[in-house]
Specification:
Blueprint (H helix, E strand, L loop, with lengths): L3 H5 L10 E2 L10 H13 L9 H20 L7 E4 L2 H12 L8 E5 L8 H4 L7 E5 L10 H7 L4 E7 L11 H10 L3 E5 L11 H4 L3 E5 L9 E5 L1 H6 L24 H5 L2 H13 L8 H29 L4 E3 L12 E5 L8 H5 L4 E2 L1 E3 L4 H6 L8 E5 L6 H14 L1
Parallel strand pairs: 1-11, 3-4, 3-5, 5-6, 6-7
Antiparallel strand pairs: 2-8, 7-8, 9-10, 10-13, 12-13
Helix pairs in contact: 2-11, 11-12, 12-15
């Protein structure tokens, strides 16, 4: 069982007394990450890549940050691109892949994904690509593999889909989808932004060609990570200055380089995970990913226990519509719980909870196409309670009491 008090002791922001249920938009940050940002800014006001001491030290710290981001998702440092957000990273990748597509080549996107994994790919139609849509089922709010299989053809080159949508919480079988895509001779790009904060990702085991993560939703600073198999990144066309060679990874796909101080802080995420495992009896001699995996297992069990009473309340409330699985089972969903109050605009509810220091959000959460398909835009989209391991049972009880009062 997770020692929640111990975990919360790492997060200065939690001292405010607010119960944060907007963690899918960005988690609060633990002290090991915060300290690294401050240390870098205090010690290194220099550019990277020079021979003098402070520059060499700063270069080493930024490289360690890149390595930490890669190790967290099971990749190598030269297989990851770091950018200010997942949206930026996908636009860079789309521009880099556009010259590799011929007119009539097909790209499949969904209407369930965050727009970051839709809009950039739809713009490839301007270069002659044919865009096909893998649509969610309105009754289950799921992406069905049979529908994908019908869309695949000999002209399919890329399939972009979510492992877990940030407005549903349902976990899709990404590995099975990838096998279908590869069987058709195409590449798979998986949006793991809403999945990765709740489960330890292994991009190699998944066999994804590309994988998207936002580290600011996994206890880090505002940094997005794009993984790509090395051969795919080499085949993509460079988008940096002309003097960067096509074999220079990641530089050719990372215009302007990375944010130095934020990248240098990324090892703090791993330090926090190791502290959680150590506190709960994990052996320090074990491989790092074993230790991080045990920490994520603790988070999963705790979040499942937190989500169960909230899902039960929402599923049985006569004036509420729960979206997604009506279960807290970790095999089926993460603790992203969305719902509507039919007949009321979504914007009405969160302000009524703020007197109890409950932070709840409403909107389309950049899944505009999904909200349109479900007919929810006119009522402001959905209400979303996204839980993290540092939430407590008391906070969930406070949310349920507040919702009982206002809906």
């Amino acid at each position: 069982m997770l020692d929640v008090a111990f975990a919360r002791s790492f997060f200065p922001a939690l001292a405010s007394g607010w119960a944060y249920f907007d963690n899918a938009g960005g988690t609060v940050v633990p002290r090991p990450v915060i300290d690294r940002v401050g240390e870098y800014l205090s010690r290194y006001g220099v550019q990277l890549g020079a021979s003098y001491g402070p520059s060499a030290e700063a270069t080493e710290r930024v490289a360690a940050g890149r390595a930490a981001a890669a190790r967290l998702i099971g990749a190598e440092p030269d297989e990851v691109l770091l950018g200010g957000s997942t949206t930026i990273n996908t636009f860079v990748l789309a521009r880099a892949l556009a010259p590799t597509l011929a007119p009539g080549d097909e790209v499949i996107v969904t209407n369930l994904d965050h727009e970051a994994n839709v809009g950039a790919w739809r713009r490839l139609a301007e270069a002659g690509a044919v865009i096909r849509e893998w649509r969610l089922h309105p009754d289950t709010l799921a992406l069905e593999l049979a529908d994908l299989e019908r869309l695949l053809s000999s002209r399919t080159r890329l399939v972009c889909f979510t492992q877990c949508a940030n407005v549903v919480g349902r976990i899709h079988d990404a590995a099975a989808a990838i096998r279908l895509v590869h069987g058709a001779g195409a590449k798979a790009l998986v949006d793991g932004v809403a999945y990765a904060p709740h489960r330890l990702v292994d991009v190699k085991a998944l066999d994804a060609d590309f994988y998207l993560v936002s580290l600011y939703k996994i206890l880090g600073p505002h940094v997005g990570v794009l993984y790509g198999k090395k051969e795919h990144l080499l085949a993509a066309r460079g988008v940096n200055h002309f003097f960067f060679g096509e074999d220079e990874l990641p530089a050719k796909l990372q215009p302007g380089n990375v944010n130095h101080e934020l990248t240098s802080a990324l090892p703090g995420i791993l330090e926090f995970l190791e502290a959680i495992d150590r506190h709960h009896g994990g052996a320090e001699g074990d491989e790092p990913r074993q230790r991080w995996g045990r920490a994520f297992e603790l988070f999963e069990r705790h979040e499942e226990a937190l989500a169960a009473p909230l899902i039960d309340f929402l599923a049985h409330h006569p004036r509420v519509r729960l979206l997604g699985p009506a279960t807290a089972e970790g095999r089926e969903r993460v603790a992203i719980i969305t719902f509507t109050v039919p007949g009321r605009h979504a914007s009405e509810i969160p302000p009524l909870l703020e007197g109890d220091k409950i932070a709840l959000r409403w909107g389309h959460f950049y899944c505009h196409r999904a909200m349109a398909a479900l007919g929810l835009l006119e009522q402001g989209g959905v209400l979303r309670a996204s839980l993290a391991h540092y939430n407590t049972a008391e906070e969930v009880e406070r949310l349920i009491r507040g919702l009982e009062r206002v809906v």
